[in-house]
Amino acid sequence: MAETEKPAGPPATLIDPIEMSKLDPKFREEIHSMPNGEELSACFACSTCTAACPIANIWEYKPHQLIRMILLGMREEVLSSSEIWLCLTCFQCQERCPQKVRVTDIFFDCKNLAAKEGKVPPNIVGLGKELLEKGQLYTVTADWEREDMGLEPDVPGLAVDPVKEILKETQTKKLVEGGE
Amino acid sequence: MPMYNLYMGCSVPANYPNYEAAMIKVAEAYDIQLEYMEGVACCGSPNLRAIDYLGWLTVNARTLAIAEKNGHDIVTPCNGCFGSLKDVYHFLKHDADYKKKVNAILKKEDLEFKGTITPRHFVEVLYTDIGIKELKKKITKPLDGVGIAIHYGCHLLRPADVTEFRPEYLNELIEVTGASVVEYPLWKQCCGATVLPVDENLGIRLARDKLKSMKESGAVFVTVVCPACGNQLDLQQLGLKESYGEEYNLPVLLYPQILGLALGMDEDEIGLSMNRVPADPILDHLTG
Q1: Which of A73, A116, A156, B100 could be joined to B36 by an S-S link, Cβ 3.0–4.6 Å?
Q2: Closest C-alpha to A167, from B231, B258, B44
Q3: B271/A100 Cα distance (integer angstroms)
Q4: Number of domains chain A is built from
Q5: B77, B96, B122 — which closes off a domain?
Q6: B59 and B98 in one domain?
Q7: Quick check: helix, strand or coil at residue B18?
Q8: Which of A85, A95, A139 has its CB closest to that of B14?
Q9: What whole-number distance in Å separates Cα of residue B111 and Cα of residue B108?
Q10: B147 & B255 share domain
Q11: Residue A152 and residue A136 share a domain
């Protein structure tokens, strides 16, 4: 039969072996010490998080694999992955974890580490810029609509400067300036 | 008369003045006193949390600290603001190191986060502080026979240990108006709003899945309690008509609009003409 004459490629299930020398053994400690990372090492890879995720089907690295990758020390792969930014933050994975691993919160930690290295999708940097420069994400443009509803045209009590001041001192400014 | 600090955030005042007005009118009907907070702006949303954890904590701790000065709980109509404030409140209550860091920044404004007041969603205040029994007393135009699918919104429900909101609260709030709750398979699923800046098509696909699930389960209306979810389910229906040729014709009402109708308010009072998918069928039903 013709099929058997084809050179045998690797079976479809075989994945690239993990390059041990590139692992960063400190990565798990790093995440462990970040907000809500304490339960990280309780993961027993049951993949309930992946079953709960509404978009895991389009992820190359599934949620349970990302957690495993953190534990193994695959820092570069995790922090460069598009998956952490596609996370809907719907918390379905975290809610269902039988080991109480705060999966969504841990992805937030990963995003913060990625942000320190400037690995952030441009539109998210844009939102950071918006917050830094305007102190809010949405500004009232149709004030007549507010007046139609009997509301004051300007939002009562609104003060955007304090938000701008805070974000000048924190990571947002560094990220926005680094991108320019 | 219970009194609260009203925290609007940025999305509702800019995009949903009808939500803001309907909430205020409903509050007046039940003698709930809402005072706009002085000197506050945006909560930063999950996007700020993703890139700048300390900044996000500080911005929200600042809002909480301002409310602590007058001692009243914060009330917000937005799931995004609610999620941020609740999460920060919960986290700083348990993390002394970050609390110290945040308060060091807030000290410049002579503010301090202590954790003495609770951030709350407007619908949770209706449920807990007013209660279904009292709410029912003022219903004059029950929405009998109207099937409503509830989109709770992720950040209202989860993480449950942080938000402390049960889906039953909103079910009962719908049922007290006389309407019935339509169950649908994807009731827990995300509307897709948060992923729009990174992958717009994915965000639209999620909204579409959700609308389909509601429609197929026999919903006639949808209710939401968040401006971001509202945009996804209401506005995106117009886009889906254009790009997929699909028509759902599911009017999406903010919860105070639904309660407002049951309280006998007219359509102008609750700004029904600002909803993108025409809500005429509900009015026909009420007058018919």
Answers
A1: A156
A2: B44
A3: 43
A4: 2
A5: B122
A6: yes
A7: helix
A8: A139
A9: 7
A10: yes
A11: yes
Rounded Cα–Cα distance for residues B288 and B141 (Å): 12
For the stretch B22-80, pLDDT in tens is 999 999 999 999 999 999 999 999 999 999 999 999 999 999 999 999 999 999 999 99
Convert the pLDDT of each residue in A145-163 to its tens digit.
999 999 999 999 999 999 9
Cβ-based neighbour number of residue B160 at 10 Å: 13
> Are residues B111 and B26 part of one domain?
yes
* Whole-model pTM over 0.90: yes
Q: Do B159 and A150 touch (CB under 8 A)?
A: no
B83 and B224 fall within a common domain = no
For B124, the token pair is: 């949770």
> pLDDT band for position A2 (50/70/90)?
very low
Q: What's the rounded Cα separation, in Å, for the pair A92 and A96? A: 6
Q: For residue range B138-151, what is the model confidence (pLDDT) as tens digits?
A: 999 999 989 999 99
Could you tell me which chain B residue has the CA closest to the CA of A82?
Answer: B198
**The domain spanning residue B93 has which CATH number?**
1.20.1050.140
Same domain, A85 and A168: no
Name the β-bridge partners of B121: B76
SS3 state of residue A12: coil
ipTM, 2 dp: 0.96
Task: Look at A172 and B51 and tell me if their CB atoms are within 8 Å.
Answer: yes
Q: Which domain holds residue B27?
A: 3-122
Q: Which of B11, B58, B59 sits opposite A138 (nearest CB)?
A: B11
In a domain, A7, yes or no: no
Residues B144, B78 share a domain: no
A136 at the B interface (CB within 8 A)? yes
**Which residues in chain A (48-67) have CB-CB distances under 8 A to chain B?**
54-55, 58
Torsion of CA A90, A93, A96, A99, to 10 degrees: -140
User: Which residues constitute the domain of residue A52?
Assistant: 21-119
